[in-house]
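#data-curation
PF: Archiving a pair of folding outputs for the training set. Convention for this channel: one message per protein, sequence first, structure tokens after, nothing in between. First:
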Amino acid sequence: MSPKSHPWGAPPWSPDFRPAPGSVPDQVDFAIVGAGFTGLSAAARLCRLAPKKSVLVLEASSLGEGASGRTGGLALADTAAGPLPGLGDVLASYQEILHELAIVGDLELPGVFEVGRSNPAKDSPICWNDAGNLKVVRSVPGGAVDPGKVVAGLARAAEKAGASIVEHAEVQTVEPSSPPRLRVCHRVRGRIQRKEVRGGQVLLATNAFSLELSGLNDAAQPKLTLALATAPLTATQLKAIGLASRRPFYTVDLPYLWGRLLPSNGMVFGAGLVPMPTSIASLFERPARKGAQRFARPNLYRFDVRKGQAAESFRWLENRVHHLHPALKSVRITHRWAGPILFTEGMRPIFRLHPRSKNVMVLAGYNGHGVALSVYLGQWAAEALLGRRSLPPWG
């Protein structure tokens, strides 16, 4: 499926890397489910720390089609729940990881504006009309990155270090045996190949639509978040709207809005959360297999953001953007897209062993703070799989 025809739309970036074609092996030392920021970061780290071990990354679709390729690219410090005990400096570690893996991701960290409708700073460069006067409250550490370049860079680094990355390899079940067994449906040149993979240890680094596989049905809520991009703005327009400093922003009150500049000087704006249909089961194509953990991956291509409530939400977002400031009244919208996001209790990431197997680790649920955090925690997960680091008490 081409990006232009994808029912979730197309962001203004995409990975420029495709992994080498490969088959799904029968057995590996480490099996990673999900080729996003988390899984690829973990794979690269595992291969560097244990070069004699086999590492397999299984991706149900293509690189960049999940949450990592569809995020807005805001790199934020800490977690959505704030700094957690023992977390460390996420942004500094993120920079170090990108540098160590030679990833050029257009990372800029000028700081991020927190904007709100009350208690504004006296020198706020922003004054927008959005359910009141929206102004800068304060600036916090952070910035923006090109998600497509980071996904591609992580995949390139992982493959170079020795990991095998197999696209269009959907993990349908994980059996919590010893070792765990993964049943994989691999689509190769229009044909379906079904394989069983025995993995010494498994990392589930999947997106918001794999809750049954990861045992998170009662611990997290999946939604789609919407974003759009504009044509390039002039220097005069950027100064007028208060973003000449190129700092991203997000609101600290409702209605929520976030945004960042692209290298082209186009703007990305995001807001709105579209819930999945009430009956998720109606989207599934296959029944669960008895005695196995079901991969709750519905046929998401049936859920088209160009229709229904999602389409209404896009129209609402475009209207907000055009009315924020006179300089944005006639700005042209060039891209519209959506991406999955997983909300958890307390807004904390879930980083723990699977409740049914000590050989299966689960890392998910970044609550919108995953751009830097997922790469950082992916490396932590690799060290934990190798017994070099403990899991965090808050995970």
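PF: Second:
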Amino acid sequence: MGLKQMAALSLGALMLWACDQSSKKTEDTSKLDYHKGAVKKEQFGGCDTSTNKGVSVIISLWQPTDSGAVASKIREILTDKTIKRLNSYGDPASVAARLEANKSPKAAFEVFEKDYNDFKKEFPDSPGCWEVELHGDTVMTTPKVVFYQLDHYAFTGGAHPNSFTSYHAFDGKTGEEIEMKRFVADSVALLNLVEKKFRELEKLAPGVDLEDAGYFLANHKFFIPANYVFTPDGVLFFYNPYEIAAYARGPIELTIPYDELKGIIRKDAVF
């Protein structure tokens, strides 16, 4: 499921919730100001398609727009994540030498751009632009939690670009980021259920050895993906490229409905 679809589902769930809450006191609904937001777009540099040279950074993130503490904290965390992801492509020595690179996306881009120019001086015939794109939007918003998706794309040379998706949860009362495992009541049962669903999705019998079938395991054992998120339909488990299968396989995702997760997740902590 893509960002637009998830955003639509999230909006629908929020509207239904809002209608249900309309009879409550004003002071109760005022706590939900962090639901209000807009997409903030930033673009630095650019790729010259005629020469296939240049360095480009595009950032497009939904952010809460009110001035409250919760919204401010979420914005702060999203900005910090953006800066760190941009700096992950910069030379560590270059980042360390420019303290501003840890303070703003623009400064982080400038280090990234410098590294590109230095690279081109050393390898002038190397083709291709360097590009990083970061897109973010809500997956689902409840009175208790904001669930968020970040899609990351990057090309800095090599055989192919790289992309990955990460999911994040923000506490509705503080804006602080919280771990998804906070919503899991029985991690062993969840692991077993995810493996069962994974095998069904991949059309693998229970006895088939996953490594023999070409999948990547952790210490020869099946594992829950690093990224999963709560959606209006259930819990979405998302394996990024290279995480459990080869790059050519692409991401692998599956959603388990809430009615199959009774006793396994803490649904009351989500809704």
